[in-house]
Design goal:
There is one protein chain. The protein is mainly α. It has one domain (about 5-70): lambda repressor-like DNA-binding domains (434 Repressor (Amino-terminal Domain), Orthogonal Bundle). The chain is about 65% helix and about 0% strand. The chain contains four helices and no strands. It is elongated and about 40 Å long.
């Protein structure tokens, strides 16, 4: 594996960890449960568990957007110079 690939993978993991942490903070501050978030998103508790798993980087933008909306937030993504 190349160094560039490893850096990209590490960056993806770091971003997912941060997003999972932010989502968990919002869930806690709104005194919601994973089950209530899942119900509001129209999904399963297992899907919310995957969303909040800091090591699971295979979450879709659609799922992130639904979770953000349920929490009164929105997703903002931007490309930056590397």
């Amino acid at each position: 594996m190349s160094v560039k690939y490893l850096l990209t993978e590490a960056n993806e993991i770091a971003i997912k960890r941060f997003i999972a942490w932010q989502l968990q903070q919002e869930i806690t501050s709104k005194q919601m449960t994973k089950t209530s978030v899942a119900k509001a998103m129209g999904t399963s508790r297992a899907a919310v568990d995957r969303l909040l798993d800091p090591k699971n980087t295979s979450v879709t933008l659609h799922t992130l957007g639904k979770a953000a909306s349920v929490l009164g937030k929105r997703i903002k993504i931007e490309l930056v110079e590397s």
